[in-house]
Amino acid sequence: MPFLAQAQISPFCIVSDTHVGAEDSVYGDFIKVVEEKNIKTIIHVGDAIHIPGSIKQWRKFLQITGSDKKLHLAPGNHDIKDKRSLEIFLRFFPDLYHSFSHEDTLFIILNTESPEEPGMIAGEQLQWLKNELERPFRYKFVFLHRPLFPIFSGRGLDRFKDARDELHRLFVKKGVSLVVSGHDHLYNRSLKDGIVYIIAAGGGGQSHFPAFNDARYYFRYITGKRKNGGYSFVVKDLQGDIGDEFNIPLSSE
Q1: Domain ranges of the chain
Q2: Would the pTM count as exceeding 0.90?
Q3: Which CATH class is domain 4-248?
Q4: Close Cβ partners of 60 (under 8 Å, ≥ 6 residues apart)
Q5: Chain-centre distance of CA 241, in angstroms?
């Protein structure tokens, strides 16, 4: 069953689309940066590996990550594609979606890759999500693979616009502050009805995006930490150059 557990998480890193197993994956370089910063919590918004159902790639991904870190993974379409890859995913990760909390903040990890409902948050998961969002936390952060509002139209939850719009309205009504996704392999930040929507950049498998075919130059990761009662987020590349900064709440200095 999905769980709600207390965790010490600040500072933490957010990463996406690492495609471990692809020749151009830079996940190992990212982990070196995480270890240099002594960050122990990683939130991954999907496409951790390159070939769905590859036990070898899952083992390599977890080996690179290291056993000393707390990993929260929202599965992507390269992690779960069909029933077989779903079964293999569950060998390594017991829950398809879950939540955890720290102090006044609820972190919700969703699954957009159900073989029965791909590209949607529906059924039992949607009801679970509604129940979780009733919890009285000051900050509510949501992480999922496919964006509600993708850079490339039709690749995200916008395939089912009515369901997407219903999900967005739920987030607005229940006070979600931040929604982070991946899938598009490019970084983007937008603001919709008071919610910060982030699309995290990819770190591998860039051959699927010919215009952006070198992961070293397009990889970005996000660090989050507590600041002045809220959160400060910084987006960097592997060279340490800052590409974006923002705060939650937006007025935080």
Answers
A1: 4-248
A2: yes
A3: alpha beta
A4: 20, 21, 49
A5: 21
Residue 142 and residue 176 in contact, taking contact as beta carbons nearer than 8 Å: yes
The tens place of each residue's pLDDT in the chain, 253 residues long, gives 343 444 457 799 999 999 999 988 999 999 999 999 999 999 999 999 999 999 999 999 999 999 999 999 999 999 999 999 999 999 999 999 999 999 999 999 999 999 887 789 999 999 999 999 999 999 999 999 999 999 988 889 999 999 999 999 999 999 999 999 999 988 999 999 999 999 998 877 665 554 455 555 568 999 999 999 999 999 999 889 999 999 999 864 4
> Beta strands of 8-138 (E only): which ranges?
12-15, 41-44, 70-73, 98-102, 105-109
**Phi and psi for 186 in degrees, rounded to 5?**
-135, 150
Strands annotated E in 16-171: 41-44, 70-73, 98-102, 105-109, 139-143
